Inverse folding.
């Protein structure tokens, strides 16, 4: 299998894996009532998102992202099997499996994507759609686990049989950013004349993370309100907008430059979502723009962490969500996530690491 086929394969697996988790959480909510469902959702979110940076660090240390993907899928399948027996055990298994899959699949995608945001978007987009579809199916009473187990088993088999050349370990140990078409031979994207549009400097990255935290906080609150109100069609629409946004954002980042697209999309998304409340006319474009920055942000973080693709994936897929949503789930002021991000930006700036106007950080190709 050609390396270019790896991100779509992992994207499909992402949809099925998150779909099984959504089915599980939806079935638990229907069976155990709202109070128990909220508690188990907290456990799932803590395991699935907050642990990703730490799990990513460990996967990079071991150097086996494919093994992390397969173990993650196995945990997800075990969660489906365990649900009728013990919902708590099932939720724990699903959370652990999600964390492992995201960092392992992210590392494999970065190795295969060759620095192209479009490929990154193809992996990232299907997850949120699968999660929402699985939850909606559970709400509609379609809770059979057999089809999900069959799909997970088939996809795990294909991933396990991928030839080593499809995901070269040497690619995983190198910085993600590579020469782009149009750059002179021997000249990396970080040093070419086109680099300004693609290069997210450190202070740009911190500002983008701040904007993402603000937007995620608003989106998390709105999503919780929709769950409480039972508005499953609105949640599905938001998930579809997020998925479309990631795909379009990946191609747009390659076309217009990561820096240009990410900062513009996040600034607009933060404004739209801050005033959206439950108005879908503002929520849908806001969510699409917010998620459209994910591929560019993911590659930018990976560029800052050469040789740490799983950690970079964990920070983007888990760390930002935990930062944006934790204050809401913990009952703290909803602006806390943005305040923490702003404080981090201030610390970095005062330390002189990369103050505004500094030259972009670069590496030898």
């Amino acid at each position: 299998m050609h390396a270019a086929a790896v991100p779509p394969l992992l994207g499909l697996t992402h949809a099925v894996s998150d779909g099984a988790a959504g089915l599980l959480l939806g079935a638990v909510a229907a069976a155990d009532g709202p109070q128990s469902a909220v508690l188990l959702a907290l456990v799932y979110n803590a395991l699935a998102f907050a642990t990703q940076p730490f799990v990513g660090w460990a996967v990079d240390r071991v150097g086996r992202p494919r093994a992390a993907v397969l173990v993650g899928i196995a945990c997800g399948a075990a969660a489906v099997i365990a649900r009728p027996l013990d919902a708590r055990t099932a939720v724990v298994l699903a959370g652990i499996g999600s964390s492992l899959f995201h960092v392992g699949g992210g590392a494999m995608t970065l190795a295969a994507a060759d620095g192209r945001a479009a490929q990154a978007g193809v992996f990232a987009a299907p997850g949120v759609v699968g999660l929402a579809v699985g939850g909606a199916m559970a709400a509609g009473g379609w809770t059979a686990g057999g089809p999900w187990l069959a799909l997970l088993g088939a996809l795990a088999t294909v991933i396990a049989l991928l030839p080593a050349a499809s995901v070269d370990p040497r690619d995983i140990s190198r910085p993600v950013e590579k020469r782009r078409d149009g750059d002179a031979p021997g000249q990396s994207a970080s040093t070419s004349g086109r680099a300004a549009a693609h290069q997210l400097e450190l202070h740009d990255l911190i500002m983008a993370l701040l904007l993402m935290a603000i937007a995620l906080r608003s989106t998390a609150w709105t999503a919780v309100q929709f769950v409480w109100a039972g508005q499953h069609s609105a949640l599905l629409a938001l998930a579809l907008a997020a998925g479309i946004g990631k795909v379009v954002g990946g191609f747009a980042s390659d076309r217009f430059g990561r820096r240009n697209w990410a900062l513009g999309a996040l600034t607009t998304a933060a404004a739209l979502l801050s005033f959206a409340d439950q108005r879908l006319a503002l929520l849908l474009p806001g969510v699409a723009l917010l998620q459209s920055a994910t591929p560019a942000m993911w590659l930018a973080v990976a560029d800052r962490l050469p040789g740490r693709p799983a950690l970079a994936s964990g920070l983007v897929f888990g760390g930002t969500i935990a930062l944006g949503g934790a204050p809401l789930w913990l009952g703290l002021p909803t602006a806390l996530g943005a305040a923490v991000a702003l404080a981090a930006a201030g610390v970095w700036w005062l330390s002189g690491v990369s103050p505004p106007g500094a030259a972009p950080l670069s590496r030898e190709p």
